[in-house]
Amino acid sequence: MRSTSKLFAALAVFAMALPATVHAAGDAPEIEAQEWSWAPPFGQFDKGQLQRGYKVYKYVCANCHSMNLLSYRNLGEPGGPGFSEAAVKALAAQAQIQDGPDDTGQMFMRPGIPADRFKAPFANKEAARAANGGAYPPDLSVMAKARPHGPDYLYALLTGYEEAPDDMTMSRGMHYNAAFPGHQIAMANPLIEGVVEYTDGTASTPDNYAKDVTAFMMWAAEPKLEERYRVGARIMLFLIAFAIVMYLTKKAVWAPVHKRDHSEETKT
Amino acid sequence: MAHESTYKPSTGFERWLDARLPIPRLMYDQFGVFPMPRNVNYLWTFGAILMFLLATQIATGIVLAMHYQPTVDGAFNSIEKIMRDVNWGWLLRYAHAVGASMFFFAAFVHMFRGLYYGSYKAPREILWMLGVLILVLMIATAFMGYSLVWGQMSFWAVTVITNLFTSLDTLIPGLGTMLVEWIWGGFAVGEPTLNRLFALHYLFPFLIAGVVILHVWALHIPGSNNPTGVDIKTKSDTLPFHPYFTIKDGFAVLLFCILFGAFLFYAPNYLGHSDNYIPADPLVTPAHIVPEWYFLPFYAILRVIPDKLMGVLALFGAIVVLFLVPWLDTSRIRSVSYRPIFKWFFWLFVICCIALGYFGSQAPEGWKLLWGRICTIYYFAFFLIIMPVVGLIEKPRRLPGSITESVLGKPSASAVGGAA
Fold first, then answer.
1. Does A205 share its domain with A134?
2. Same domain as A245, residue A169
3. What chain B residue is nearest to A246 in terms of C-alpha separation?
4. Choosing from B29, B249, B329, B405, which is the catalytic residue?
5. Is residue A103 part of a domain?
6. What CATH number corresponds to the domain at position A197?
7. Domain boundary assignment for chain B
8. Greatest C-alpha distance within chain A
């Protein structure tokens, strides 16, 4: 029916217009879209990139930012950085974790094991604030999903440090950042050339650091992304094949009715 | 359509059961040979799609509830645990979240279809009202479910919406505050609030399922409407539900699953708000508090009205007015396809609802506030003025004499045209 297709068209416009409007709120600067290895529908994380990103996180970000939802074991799980079992054990053991109480009721420190959560830099929110001029460095576990434009925004932020324009007065202890809403951010530019040394031949540039640590944060936020795409591809393929069969069946079931109509049409 | 039962128990067990609990007879009469107007289009498959979605939401929700912790400190992290450590947890959680959006999308299509083809007109008034009741229950369920994530948007949505009740203070001082503290179970949104939201979120889908049974019952008395709005007159106007419509609905559900899957597997957070991945913090208010997309038109109506109490009344009024539609429409015929004047107002109404959705997502200021108000006025005028008035003055186009005639595309000599 003509009106049906019109209604569908209107609803399709409706469906497409909505997400754009949902995210329209806010006055954040324009964020440029990047090409990422995990783009749907078949994208995957680059294991080397995730391992480099973990290194950047560990030596730079982790000085202030926690990642409370992640455990060392995650680093060796499928769909992630793909560290070997031995490497995961070694990485975990580098952290001193508080455990206890022991038989005498005392808390004690021990080397980390793969089941431990990533060790947080501060004991609590208050300590984190006190050490960072009153600004709280947010947990990075799901950061790649917690800001509009996700990873594109994180990359833009990490590479967005510039000299403040002359007509802008900066508050004390704040840094100018082109991507940050309001442009004044408490975090100083964390990614200085050479601050982390890459050993796999990748150039140790701030741009590479930003890309790699963003990829790592994306994996941290969506550790099942590869599994999701893989399962999704199978299910979508099945659904499409099933739908074709169902359509043909539907046509076959209805064919006698249409045939009868046609003969009646020619009869009268 | 209520019809004589033609079920014949064929085995001894069926005869035994038929004399005690005639479920096979019910299924045979209502879903086997049930006469459907043969000309219904694919918009009539959304009932089946909604049934499928309700079942999906309940199934995924029950498993999610096994892993979810309704505590202020544990809620957000327990959902992340489901996403990370529960087998297939990411699939369950994303299916449930995306499923809510799909549910509303399908329900809106279903309702616009009912509005367009006059499916609320006699003798289907109760059917329509039960549908609106399901919408009310859906809104409550979705709102409570969204709050359980306990992210920033969850927390502030609960704060904003529960605070609406304080507007009653302007009527009777203290009434609103008393009511809202009773709802919260304290003096602010907190753990008791989260606990009761969880309990009710688990209860409401079963209420919906109950009303759905009544909805289908009320449908099966007059039978389905159809694109012409002309009643079934002869047996040749109908086809049995099975196999013609089971197969058609099945195909439509599959197509809908492809849309569902596209969001679920490739853009599960596309319809959500990134702020809800920030754990709830009562000390930090988000810059813009916006509800999920399906509530935006109602949210727009709430915000364009400068007075709080009036805004709340308009918000509820926007849904209450739907209950009255069967009596507000004075048209003698059902289908808008045969209504040359009302047709324009109908499509303008669809555009108005979409526009309200857009304005709901924007800060209410400047031209957006003005147009939000114009759309709000049109929303109510459509039901309260245009529906009754146009129905009286409009001369409908000639209706086909019967459903069969509309399918064959020619008037038969016996059919008398005009309003049937």
1. yes
2. no
3. B251
4. B249
5. no
6. 1.10.760.10
7. 22-284, 290-403
8. 100
Instruction: Using an 8 Å CB-CB cutoff, list chain A residues near B268.
Output: 228
Residues A149 and A125 in one domain: yes
DSSP state at residue A195: S
Residues A181 and A255 occupy one common structural domain = no
Task: Note if B5 is an active site residue.
Answer: no
**Is B67 one of the catalytic residues?**
no
Q: ipTM for the complex?
A: 0.91
Q: Report the amino acid identity of residue B350.
A: V
Q: Which pLDDT tens digit goes with each residue over B289-327?
A: 999 999 999 999 999 999 999 999 999 999 999 999 999
Residue in chain A lying closest to B353 (CA)? A14
Smallest Cβ–Cβ distance between A145 and the set B248, B257, B277 belongs to B277
* Together in a domain, A170 and A252: no
Residue A204 inside a domain? The answer is yes
Say how many C-beta atoms besides its own lie within 10 A of residue B340's C-beta: 12
For this structure, is B292 an active site residue? yes
Same domain, A207 and A236: no
Of B248, B261, B350, the CB nearest to A235: B261
Quote the domain boundaries for residue A157: 37-70+117-223
A158 and A126 in a common domain: yes
Q: B110, B121, B201, B220: which one is catalytic?
A: B220
pLDDT of chain A, 268 residues: tens digit per residue: 444 455 445 445 445 444 444 444 445 689 999 999 999 999 999 999 999 999 999 999 999 999 999 999 999 999 999 999 999 999 999 999 999 999 999 999 999 999 999 999 999 999 999 999 899 999 999 999 999 999 999 999 999 999 999 999 999 889 999 999 999 999 999 999 999 999 999 999 999 999 999 999 999 999 999 999 999 999 999 999 999 999 999 999 999 999 988 887 676 5
Half-sphere exposure of B134 (CA within 13 A, CB side): 27
Is position A102 within any domain?
Answer: no
**What gap in Å lies between CA B9 and CA A257, rounded to an integer?**
28
- Same domain, yes or no: A172 and A146: yes
Please pick, among B29, B237, B292, B405, the residue that the annotation labels catalytic.
B292
Q: Does the distance separating the beta carbons of A247 and B250 come in below 8 Å? A: no
CATH architecture of B22-284: Up-down Bundle (1.20)
User: Residue B261: which of A7, A142, A239 has the nearest Cβ?
Assistant: A239
pLDDT of residue B337 exceeding 70, the answer is yes
Q: Given B80, B408, B410, which is nearest A69 (Cβ)?
A: B80
- Fold match, B22-284 / B290-403: no
Task: List the CATH code of the domain at B290-403.
Answer: 1.10.287.980
Contacts A254 to B, Cβ<8 Å = 244, 247-248
Residue B276 scores a pLDDT above 60: yes
Q: Is B235 a catalytic residue?
A: no
Question: Is B277's CB within 8 Å of A142's CB?
Answer: yes
In a domain, A14, yes or no: no
CB hemisphere CA count around B243 (13 angstroms) = 11
